[in-house]
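As noted in the main text, all predictions were made from sequence alone. Below is one such record, for Nicotinate-nucleotide pyrophosphorylase [carboxylating].
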Amino acid sequence: MTEHSVIDQAVRPGRAPGLTLPAGPVREILERAYAEDAPAGDITSQLLIPAAARATAVLNARVPGVLSGATVFRDAMQLVDPGISVELLVADGATFDAGTHLARVSGPARSVLLAERVALNLVQRMSAIATRTAEFVQLTRGTRARITDTRKTTPGLRILERFAVRCGGGANHRYSLSDAVLAKDNHLAVMTGGDPARLTELLLEARAQLGHTTHFEVEVDRMDQIEPVLAAGVDTIMLDNFSTEELAAGVALVAGRARVEASGNVNIHTVAEIAATGVDVISVGALTHTVAALDLGLDVELTVG
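Prediction:
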């Protein structure tokens, strides 16, 4: 079983209790992060903090949001030192207010301080993605549109960022280039060799080579491409950078013959209008590629020793 199929089975859609991540891939991410951040340990803490000192700290929310990465935060702490105790006070997928205590950490002070930055970096980014996703989902309530991510993720962190989208109530697009066929404008330009009249024929030939379970999606950027693509029996047609008027016309033209995805020019100000056109899916690269870390802090309450 591939890593992404594990994720798709383990992560349940929506902000339901019990969202989980597989331990193996998360551990690999954390090991790489510590190899980068503390290749020979934390020389500051080793110099300044007595070996016997213990610390208790709280993960505090300085702004409201949706939590994602609580278990990653815990695993980041305990990978450094199994002697660190982490009490998760808020679950992944839950909303919280500014001032909420999200987790409590206690253990050897040197270990807590070494783990602090990696643990915070990940939970801050993941919670920012979940919070942004929840905003988009809220703006499309009452429509048929599903908010999804894209492959515009941070290299090496896709598994975490996709999970965060689910924590925010969104859905996931294909995990990788290996998962589904998505023919975009550059594919079509090369494939047709500048002869758009052959588009349907070439797509039919391509589809005939696919297994019956492989999803086939094609991107179009003009209204006159819709019928030739539909004639090839695709599963999803992506309307890229269409105006809302064109999206509504495109949905009417497709008329249920394929799933309709809207992409391009999607932001917090346009998403409600896009959803109202009747599209089935709205893919939003901004969920992952332009978020700023959510303001969470690890505040030491007590140091003993």
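The chain has twelve helices and twelve strands. Confidence is low (pLDDT under 50) at residues 1-17. These features were considered when defining construct boundaries for the mutagenesis experiments described in Section 2.9.
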